[in-house]
Design brief:
Elements lengths: L23 H6 L8 H7 L5 H26 L4 H53 L3 E6 L4 E5 L1 H7 L3 H4 L11 H15 L5 E8 L5 E10 L10 E7 L1 H23 L3 E6 L4 E4 L1 H7 L3 H4 L10 H17 L3 E8 L6 E12 L5 E10 L1 H23 L5 E3 L5 E4 L1 H9 L1
Antiparallel strand pairs: 1-2, 1-5, 3-4, 4-5, 6-7, 6-10, 8-9, 9-10, 11-12
Helix pairs in contact: 2-4, 3-4
């Protein structure tokens, strides 16, 4: 938020030199004065009012009558008619010039007052704007890296009052001296190119808490350059950083979970383009995730199997729900072949719009083999049970008969 102390700041031109080192109280108390042009200097000594204008006309009239009568009596005694005519013409000319001069000065004075009012209004507007900003704003003297001004948001962010910050070197806002120097080097390298500096940095508040901040630093006057003064805008991104870190941790946990399960997991967009997958799926395609992302089934499987995959993708999109099917899959890595139960479901964004398809395939080969073995075992048992010449009863622990084979039924009839 401040700049490196490598060389003294460039000075303003003569009429701005003093303002470059104003303290905050001097800046607030100084009067906004109009530019000192020749016209404004003349107005400073002659404030036009109705009384002054009347007095100017009265004095000018007395002087005119006195001087012209004196001149007529001395030089035009023989031709008074011509003298009176010349006197009249001169009076009109002199009166016109006087009225023009008075009107011109009055107009300049009005313009001067209007300009002064506009400057004050602009300054007030800037003050209110700075006070209403949610981001901290600092006016920095880059030569000394001292704070010249700051807004209320800066006080709230760092916990210092304006009086505690103004006039101080910005080092107290950093966690340690090395951070202070590093920030100065980074910002100077960018500002020297005539560009605005933008970067993230860790600062320290008055209570010792660390603040994650985003800085934007620009020269006050681009023509004079950044060494003449800079404005630093500091945005608090602590909560954003915490949320980002939490998101990264959550993503890491999710990734760990997905990578450790033996099931094949993948994600496609609605056009069948892969967006991601786990390691088990990588073995199925025989390629790394970064090689799979951006491609489709047709880049890894023959058209028949790829068509089969896409057909079930479309089915899941059409029913807007789970699509379950069984399919034999052969892994490109290792050549393993097995029966898999594949579940596909549409993936939605925060607005509920379908943006892709999530797929999970589980190897059910052993389960199917166990089921087949169980059915075969049950068939054999049923055959022995039914065709045994000996009476066979199936009873519960309390002695109740649940089932009996034909030989047992015949025996019951005999008894």
């Amino acid at each position: 938020m401040s700049l490196p102390k490598n060389e003294p700041p460039a000075k303003y031109p003569a009429n701005r030199e003093e303002s470059s080192t104003l303290t905050d109280s001097e800046f607030q108390n100084q009067d906004v004065q109009p530019e000192k042009t020749p016209e404004n200097l003349a107005i400073a000594g002659l404030r036009m009012t109705p009384i002054k204008i009347a007095l100017i006309f009265a004095v000018a009239g007395v002087l005119w009558v006195s001087l012209t009568d004196l001149l007529v009596n001395r030089y035009f005694e023989e031709d008074l008619l011509l003298a009176e005519a010349l006197k009249g013409f001169l009076f009109v000319g002199a009166t016109t010039a006087l009225v023009y001069w008075l009107a011109h000065r009055a107009l300049l004075e009005v313009q001067c007052k209007w300009t002064e009012k506009q400057l004050k209004n602009t300054l007030n507007l800037l003050e209110k704007t700075l006070a209403s900003l949610g981001d901290a704003v600092f006016l920095i003297n880059p030569g000394e890296r001292t704070i010249l001004r700051c807004n209320p948001a800066a006080e709230r962010l760092f916990g210092y009052t304006a009086e505690e910050m103004i006039g101080r070197n910005t080092q107290f806002l950093y966690e340690h001296l090395q951070a202070y120097k590093k920030f100065g080097e980074l910002s100077e390298n960018v500002l020297e190119k005539g560009e605005a500096f933008r970067g993230e940095f860790q600062m320290q508040a008055k209570d010792g808490n660390l603040i994650q901040t985003e800085h934007t630093i620009t020269a006050i006057d681009k023509e004079l350059g950044w060494r003449d003064g800079v404005i630093s805008i500091v945005h608090d991104i602590t909560e954003r950083k915490k949320a980002l870190e939490a998101s990264r941790e959550s993503e890491a946990h999710y990734r760990t979970l997905v990578e450790t399960i033996p099931d094949l997991v993948w994600l496609k967009d609605t056009q069948g383009v892969y967006l991601g997958c786990n390691q088990a799926f990588e073995r199925f395609f025989g390629a790394k995730e970064e090689e799979i992302v951006g491609k489709t089934d047709y880049d890894f499987k023959d058209r028949g199997q790829a068509d089969f995959f896409r057909e079930h993708d479309r089915k899941a999109l059409e029913i807007r729900g789970l699509s379950v099917n069984e399919e034999w899959l052969t892994f490109a890595e290792g050549g393993y072949s097995g029966l898999f139960e594949t579940i596909k479901t549409p993936l939605r964004n925060a607005e509920g719009e379908i943006i892709g398809i999530l797929g999970v395939a589980r190897d059910i080969t052993m389960r199917k083999e166990a089921e087949n073995a169980l059915r075969q075992s049950e068939g054999k048992f049923r055959a022995l049970f039914e065709y045994s010449p000996e009476a066979v009863f199936l009873t519960t622990p309390d002695g109740s008969i649940e089932a009996a084979n034909p030989a047992a039924c015949k025996l019951s009839l005999i008894h």
